[in-house]
Each structure stands twice: as structure tokens, then as C-alpha cells.
């Protein structure tokens, strides 16, 4: 009977990017040390970790982070964000004590936080180390909105102290605010499991037919142009994130949020990706090497950093949210598909993090 070492993982529920990065790290850790078991604290959905993890884990539904409240994939709801932050911060001491007691009872040796500051506070209360994994922290994001509401300043100051209190600090490219940290890594992405030919066969798409994945991250998006695409017989479009079952309608394939086809496998089997420039999509596009038609977020402070990274490191073509919504991007589909696919030999950032953490766990004392 295997005796497991337990690690608590506090994950921001903002979109799916933090859950994807966390899952990639957990898989890499478990590959190095099969005795590891993860206790995941988050409101990111349980099914996402079921789909992404082969490592053993426990799921604990907990609001670990507010992040930004969204109206849709590209638009923030700032009044709701401020209102929820005012209720959530500062952390309630009794609540933190209860979570710390739960973490200790589970036998966790450390807490890894994907930008969820609550995990750092809980680790301090539980008397175990905290590892912060980030490409940005929320105080840095909120600084971009202080002209909207000065109340954010008190939350910025509070969060800065918490993030600085982490015992170990890891930054993953693309990095928004480079600092002197314990480890800097390449992009962290979930790894491909199946060959492109196998995925295309499952989707009913021939190898020689062009296929584009359309994704707006964790939010449902209203794709009003889909009727126009039905006339594009030489191009298949896989639309991710719909609240519909997996189904084909001519050359349009609806891919539900929870699917029995692993999402990174679909991305890897495509000839190009179009979607929001979010962390996990960029990381998975980076390692797959596919061309990326990317859409930025006008006010979100991370967005400019991500777009600059795409321009420097990825075969990319910029689009606007309006172009996506009205379908005018179709006129540039051939231009996107003509971009070269980049063959990568770099290590996945998840493996760099796993190696670092396993050495910490093995260190005496």
C-alpha cells in the first residue's frame, strides 16, 4: 500500500488558466514522485481537474481568490470586482484558522499557490512553507484600475504584503513584473497525450483538411458568425467552451467545456488557434508551435505583456473582439494558416517547477 505525501494547492478560480497551469505542475510533480497526492482548494470546477490529472487528488470547494469579475471573456466588471474585494479582504482570522486546521489534518507538507493569496496566509497559520507560482499577482493587476476606484489601493497594499511573505517565489513566462525570485521558468502547459492523427480521426477530420480551434478561455462566447462558416467547405472550425454536447454540424464542431477529448490534444491537432490571449492558451500554443490568431483585452494589464510575448516567440496574427464576433476574421484565415508551425525542443516550465519542488521536499529538515 502506497503512503502518500500530501501537498495542498490553492488555485485562483479566475478563468481556467490558473487551473491549467496548476494541473500541469501537479502532473509533472507526480511523474517525478508517484507518492505525491494533491489537496486542491479552489472554485475552479472539479471536472477540469478530473480531465487534466492522472495524479491522485482531493477536491475542496473554497473561494480562494476574487481576481476580476467578468462580464464576458474580454470585459471586466469593475463595480462587482470592488464590491466583492471589499467583502473578501482582509481575510477573516477564524476562517483562516479553520482552513489551516483542515490542511494540517490532511497531512500537507507545503502549500503551492497559483496567485491565490489565501494559500500563503493559510500556510503561515499552519506552520508549513508556501510556494507562490505566478506570471502576475493581483496587486499588480489592480494597480491598472486605481483611476476607476481608489478603494483598490487598500487591497493593493494588503496583497503586496501577503505575496512578499511567500517562502519561495516562482515566475513563469510570459512574466508581467520580473523580479529576483527563486526560479524563473519557460511557459507552463499541460502535455499532449495523443497523436494528432488519432484526434482528427475521432473528430472525423481528414489529415489534409485545415482545422482551426476557436477558444475564448473559460467563458462562453456568442459566436454569431457560425452560419457563414458553413460555406467554407475546405476549413473545419472546432468551437471550444459551448454548453452543448460534442457534435458536428457540417464543418463546425462544438466542443463542450467538459469533454472526453483532452483539450491540449485538440489544440495540438489543429493547424491554427484563434482566441483570447490568456496564459494557458499561450503556453499550450507555445509548446505545440501552432499559429495563433490572438485577441487582447483592452484594459487588462496583463494583456499587453502577453501580446508582446506572442509577437516575439509565437507565429501570431492580431485580431479584435469585433472581428471575432462579426466573422470578418474569415477573410484573414488563409493568412493565419500560412504562418509557419514552430518546432519546439525546450523544456516545459512544469518540469522545471516540479524539479525545484521535489528538491525542496527531499532537502533535510
Description of the molecule:
Helices cover 39% and strands 22% of the residues. The protein has 365 residues and is an alpha/beta fold. It has 2 domains: 5-190 and 348-362, 3-Layer(aba) Sandwich (Rossmann fold), CATH 3.40.50; 196-337, Glycogen Phosphorylase B (Rossmann fold, 3-Layer(aba) Sandwich). Strands 3-2-1-6-7-8-9 form a 7-stranded parallel sheet, sandwiched between helices. Strands 12-13-11-10-14-15-16 form a 7-stranded mixed sheet. Strands 4-5 form a two-stranded antiparallel ribbon. α1 (17-32) links the parallel β1 (5-11) and β2 (36-42). The relative contact order is 0.14. The mean pLDDT is 90.
Quick tags:
single chain; 365 residues; alpha/beta; Rossmann fold; 2 domains; seven-stranded parallel sheet; seven-stranded mixed sheet; 15 helices; 22% strand; globular
SSE map:
Elements: E1 5-11, H1 17-32, E2 36-42, H2 46-52, E3 57-61, E4 70-72, E5 75-76, H3 78-88, H4 93-105, E6 108-114, H5 117-126, E7 130-134, H6 138-142, H7 152-164, E8 168-172, E9 183-185, H8 196-203, E10 210-215, H9 226-229, E11 235-242, E12 247-249, E13 252-256, H10 263-269, E14 272-276, H11 279-288, E15 292-295, H12 301-313, E16 316-319, H13 321-326, H14 333-337, H15 349-362
Parallel strand pairs: 1-2, 1-6, 2-3, 6-7, 7-8, 8-9, 10-11, 10-14, 11-13, 14-15, 15-16
Antiparallel strand pairs: 4-5, 12-13
Helix pairs in contact: 1-15, 4-5, 8-10
